[in-house]
């Protein structure tokens, strides 16, 4: 432990709890962090005033050579080396003289691509979160463990000089690529640690010719791997959870020369409105060892009964648990090169078909676009369908230019002959408010047709304007919904709405036409007119 103490660079340290076992972490969280135990055995904690990430408070140190690779802008903001040094000293002052939890873990199940990460925190439940979410080394591996990257989580300190430093607020999440260090201050939200390392994997892997991905993945009994990309509300978690297929992971993956691998060792699921009938796997995983964040509960004879429908604290209530809590999971958390890739879009305009097959160029275009739509009621001020575009279905976590990831995807699709499909889990027969949500029966049938290969036996036709190849028939899918135009009572209104959505795609894609690498796949997207 003395070697670890000295490596942390702190003024002094009391006790070091290195990779403490889960039961002791739970007990310490109860004794010191205000945690309580729910009726089902899960640990209930609160993350304070921040119940989600603080993307406007995320920074990268501006220095050579990383500043030449990072795509600077609203997602990746610059901070000076001098300001970083001040904040690092502030974080270390906060952590000095404390009992500390040191969590040495791996990010990445692939032996050739994993990174060794060290987290330092004074909060027991944050160390428990890390234990749930990352891959724990074996006992014999800890003796030789040397961190590739260290995260100092000094959540109890703030930056009072944020205005002088020209920052957004007193909260800071800062990454120093050259020094392989990150510091967190002012926010207790554990997701900053999870997504912070995901951001770093999105920096490291492409420089090694490997593709990091914000997607879920599962594997069939014959070893065929499938990837599911999609933004919130598209069904990514639900559709990748399949009793006939083992779950590789639910959120973050890499694709190297050996195939697909999970970055994590756990799952981090939303639990707002959780229902045991519609999401039984998640419901069953909430037990001793799971962590419930910011949920509301009632006392009943000493039992703390969780009300999953109560979003009064936040709509972003969550649970973290080890992936082993899912009955049907892939123990290695790895799979071969994917057979199928599925892009999920919840199109509230009712324009996109329930399923369409993409060419390699179209795959790169729709990957870069990362489209879904928000509907009225999902956020304040939204009264009609609103298009949302998030590059690579995870723009908030991309340190490099989005086209770097799109090119890697295209290369891997071509090299491994991967099938790519676009699946609309949104509306049919009209836009939101007129049409209806695509039935889970039809969507499941589309997914099944992709995974069992039967869709390839279909006869295809081309959807005008978007030039998408759509099947004329598909087992288990109502034939009339396969061509979205046919589901609208007013076909002219469909044409007008399609033009509107196509224009949104084209407008969003303009930002990729100025890239120095001359990346231009506009021909793979919607046409300018019918």
Into which percentage range does the β-strand content fall?
A: 25-35%
Give the low-pLDDT segments.
376-381
Structural class: alpha/beta
The oligomeric state of the chains shown is single chain
**Could you tell me how far the N terminus lies from the C terminus, measured between alpha carbons in angstroms?**
69 Å
Mean pLDDT: 94
The major pleated sheet works out as:
9 strands, mixed
Number of helices: 14
Shape from CA axes? globular
The value of Rg in angstroms is 23 Å
Work out the number of β strands: 30
Helix content: 25-40%
Keywords:
alpha/beta, eight-stranded mixed beta sheet, 25% helix, globular
List the helices and strands and how they pair.
Elements: H1 2-7, E1 16-18, H2 22-32, E2 36-37, E3 43-45, E4 58-61, E5 77-79, H3 81-95, E6 100-107, E7 115-121, H4 124-133, H5 139-142, E8 149-154, H6 162-165, E9 172-176, E10 181-185, H7 191-204, E11 211-219, E12 225-230, H8 236-240, E13 246-249, E14 252-256, E15 259-262, E16 266-270, H9 280-285, E17 291-293, E18 296-300, E19 303-307, E20 318-322, E21 334-335, E22 340-345, E23 355-358, H10 360-369, E24 371-374, E25 386-389, H11 402-416, E26 419-424, E27 427-428, E28 436-437, H12 440-451, E29 460-463, E30 468-471, H13 479-482, H14 491-509
Parallel strand pairs: 1-6, 3-17, 4-5, 4-9, 7-8, 8-10, 12-22, 22-26
Antiparallel strand pairs: 2-3, 6-7, 9-10, 11-12, 11-13, 11-14, 14-15, 15-21, 16-20, 17-20, 18-19, 23-26, 24-25, 27-28, 29-30
């Amino acid at each position: 432990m003395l070697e670890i103490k000295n490596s942390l660079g702190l003024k002094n340290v009391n006790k070091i709890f290195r990779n403490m076992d889960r039961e002791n972490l739970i007990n310490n969280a109860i004794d010191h962090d205000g945690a309580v135990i729910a009726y089902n055995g899960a640990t209930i904690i609160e993350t304070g005033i921040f119940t989600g990430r603080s993307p406007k408070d995320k920074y990268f140190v501006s220095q050579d050579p990383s500043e030449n690779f990072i795509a600077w802008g609203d997602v990746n903001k610059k901070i000076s080396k001098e300001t970083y040094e001040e904040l690092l000293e502030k974080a270390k002052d906060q952590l000095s003289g404390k009992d500390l939890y040191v969590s040495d873990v791996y990010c990445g199940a692939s032996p050739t691509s994993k990174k060794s990460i060290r987290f330092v925190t004074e909060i027991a439940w944050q160390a428990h979160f890390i234990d749930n979410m990352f891959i724990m080394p074996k006992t014999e591996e800890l003796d030789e463990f040397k961190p590739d990257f260290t995260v100092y989580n000094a959540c109890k300190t703030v930056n009072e000089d944020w205005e002088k430093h020209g920052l957004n607020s007193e909260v800071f999440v800062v990454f120093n690529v050259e020094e392989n260090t990150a510091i967190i201050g002012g926010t207790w939200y554990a997701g900053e640690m999870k997504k912070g390392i995901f951001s770093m994997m999105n920096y490291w892997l492409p420089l090694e010719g490997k593709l990091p991905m914000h997607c879920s993945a599962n594997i069939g009994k014959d070893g065929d791997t499938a990837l599911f990309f999609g933004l919130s509300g598209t069904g990514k978690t639900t559709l990748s959870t399949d009793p006939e297929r083992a779950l590789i992971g639910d959120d973050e993956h890499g694709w190297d020369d050996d195939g697909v691998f999970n970055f994590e060792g756990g799952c981090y699921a939303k639990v707002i409105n959780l229902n045991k009938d519609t999401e039984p796997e998640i419901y069953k995983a909430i037990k001793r060892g799971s962590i419930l964040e910011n949920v509301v509960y009632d006392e009943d004879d000493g039992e703390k009964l969780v009300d999953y429908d109560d979003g009064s604290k936040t709509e972003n209530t969550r649970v973290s648990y080890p992936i082993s809590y899912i009955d049907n999971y892939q123990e290695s958390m790895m799979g071969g090169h994917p057979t199928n890739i599925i892009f999920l879009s919840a199109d509230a305009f009712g324009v996109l078909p329930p399923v369409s097959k993409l060419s390699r160029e179209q795959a790169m275009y729709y990957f870069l676009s990362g489209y879904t739509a928000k509907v009225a009621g999902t956020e304040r001020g939204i009264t009609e369908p609103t298009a949302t575009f998030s590059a690579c279905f995870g723009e908030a976590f991309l340190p490099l230019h989005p086209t770097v990831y799109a090119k890697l995807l295209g290369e891997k699709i071509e090299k491994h002959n991967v099938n790519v499909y676009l699946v609309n889990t949104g509306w049919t027969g009209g836009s939101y408010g007129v049409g209806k949500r695509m039935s889970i029966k039809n969507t499941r049938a589309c997914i099944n047709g992709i995974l069992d290969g039967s869709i390839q036996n279909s006869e295809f036709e081309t959807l005008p304007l978007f030039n998408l190849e759509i099947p004329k028939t598909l087992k288990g899918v109502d034939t009339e919904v396969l061509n979205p135009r046919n589901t609208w009572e007013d076909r002219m209104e469909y044409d007008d709405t399609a033009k509107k959505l196509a224009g949104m795609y084209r407008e969003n894609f303009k930002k990729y036409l100025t890239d120095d690498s001359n990346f231009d796949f506009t021909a793979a997207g919607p046409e300018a007119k019918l």
